[in-house]
Design a protein that fits this description.
500 residues, mainly alpha, 1% strand, 22 helices, two-stranded antiparallel ribbon
Length: 500
């Protein structure tokens, strides 16, 4: 259908779709900007003082620092940035002089960073998790691996709710360790399920303690990690240039996001429904949900981009960077291309273990449900995560039904005869838009929580027929734009492959 979208639709029609998309985004962003002063006057939250560069006279420009994840990441970088530099230095020297000691270098940097900054209780939990998965891997038992994973999920949730431990280590370390243990659980599971008999303990530790991806990801499977060549010889100047460009890209998006938070208080809107309700109408409240998703995307461009930059520089087959949500119109693509590493883990180790290509529809639905049950438990057993997981499952199940419908010969023949090729493409897009709307709003539950998710979902479906038709029209235009961009991207990739 992607190819059809770019070849069947007229240029005028395509211009209309992109015009609606751009106008809605621009006006929506302006309306969010216009709320800034009202937020400052009505909110009890104490916003942080902004950059001196942006101050005007006696006016103090404040920055939206209400997103805990973003602020925790900034604190983490403020503490651990020397170890990123040390990792690059140790990795570069090891590859140049002592390639066989490369894994040992990874372990040394990570051990130094953790040993000098973490409380002994945190070190004990982290060490116990790492060692337990290595010992389990020696048994070559999938059942034992999953039992151990269940144990550690319970242990992490107990630690998460322990006020005693929080008082011992402080909030910053508490958050860091919970996140690190959660990622380490997946790494340990990946190693235990896929490691070979001759895999050394040093190689395992190099994988499990790879510092650039240790806390803020992305998840890199053990199969990807061992693809890295051990003998790379001297580091080329081109390789270091690519590394520097990748780091500059991350820094650019970080600065852009920090600059934007002086003017758009979108993170605070995600935690205070009353601010979203200040917008002119329900129709424009949808724009708040869209930009919550975009700021969420930029956050992962920064955090995942940093880990990917180091991994690619070290010759590791890292997953691709998150795809912009503005270019995702089927929810299955959100899972495949937003967090590719996590998707690979869920697909290989859970979904594919429970069903295959020849399995029945019922078996595939059950496998999908169990996959999202793991997603819910791993992210933390919160109500908003449960709602998000259930909506994810329902949207993916509905998408499977939709794809089965539009691929039926009888349906294809009927739609082509009745509407023609271009009309059939529009009909497909209109039907898929009905899946796109709830899928898009489901993400708000994960980003902002249950209250804001319920508010925007009610606005979408319980604010009258006129509002829903307007939402459908804009979403239809968004869908077509994303389809067209995807079509151009596929054609471009095919041309690159042919040229090589």
């Amino acid at each position: 259908m992607a190819t059809l979208a770019s070849t069947l639709l007229s240029r005028f029609e395509i211009v209309i779709y992109f015009a609606v998309y751009i106008v809605y985004i621009v006006i929506g962003l302006y309306k969010i900007y216009a709320l800034r002063d009202r937020v400052l006057n009505s909110s009890q939250f104490r916003f942080a003082e902004g950059w001196q560069l942006l101050q005007r006279g006696n006016e103090v420009r404040l920055r939206d620092d209400s997103n805990d994840e973003l602020e925790n990441f900034a604190d983490f970088i403020g503490t651990f940035w020397p170890y990123y530099l040390l990792h690059a230095l140790v990795s570069g020297v090891s590859r140049w002089k002592w390639p066989r000691l490369l894994r040992h270098g990874y372990v040394a940097v990570s051990a130094l960073a953790l040993g000098l900054n973490l409380h002994w209780t945190s070190l004990a939990m982290f060490s116990a998790l790492i060692v337990s998965y290595y010992l389990t891997a020696q048994r070559r038992s999938k059942r034992l691996t999953w039992l151990l994973s269940g144990f550690w999920i319970v242990a992490i949730n107990i630690a998460k709710n322990s006020q005693w431990w929080l008082d011992q280590v402080g909030y910053a370390e508490y958050v860091m360790l919970i996140v690190t243990l959660s990622w380490s659980l997946l790494r340990g599971c990946s190693y235990s399920l896929k490691s070979e008999e001759n895999a050394s303990f040093a190689e395992y530790l190099g994988y499990a303690m790879y510092f650039p991806c240790l806390t803020y990801g992305p998840f890199i499977s053990y199969e990807r990690f061992v693809q890295q060549p051990e003998d790379r010889g001297c580091n080329s100047l081109q390789q270091w240039k690519r590394f520097l460009v990748a780091l500059l890209r991350v820094g650019f998006w970080w600065l852009m996001m920090q600059w934007a938070l002086h003017y758009f208080y979108i993170h605070y809107m995600a935690r205070d429904v009353s601010v979203v309700a200040m917008m002119d109408s329900v129709f424009w409240q949808h724009a708040a949900g869209y930009f919550m998703g975009q700021f969420f995307f930029v956050y992962y461009v920064v955090t995942y981009g940093l880990g990917i930059a180091f991994a690619e520089h070290d010759g590791i087959a890292a997953p691709r960077r998150p795809r912009c949500i503005g270019r995702i119109h089927f929810y299955s693509d959100m899972w495949k291309y937003f967090d590719e590493g996590l998707y690979e883990f869920l697909f290989k180790h859970i979904y594919a273990e429970l069903c295959g290509k020849q399995s029945s529809i019922c078996a595939k639905f059950c496998a999908t449900a169990l996959t999202f049950a793991f997603v819910f438990i791993w992210h933390g057993c919160y109500t908003y995560v449960l709602i998000w997981s259930v909506l994810n499952f329902l949207c993916l199940a509905a998408e499977k039904i939709y794809r089965a419908l539009v691929s039926m010969p009888a349906y294809e023949q009927w739609s082509l005869q009745l509407f023609g090729s271009a009309g059939a493409q529009r009909l497909h897009a209109l039907l898929a838009t009905q899946l796109f709307i709830p899928a898009a709003f489901s993400n708000v539950y994960f980003i902002g929580g249950k209250e804001i998710g319920d508010f925007l979902m009610r606005g979408a479906y319980m604010s009258g027929l006129g509002n829903y038709l307007a939402l459908c029209f804009c979403s239809y235009c968004f869908f077509q734009c994303s389809e067209l961009l995807l079509s151009r991207s596929r054609i471009s990739n095919k041309d690159k492959i042919k040229s090589t």
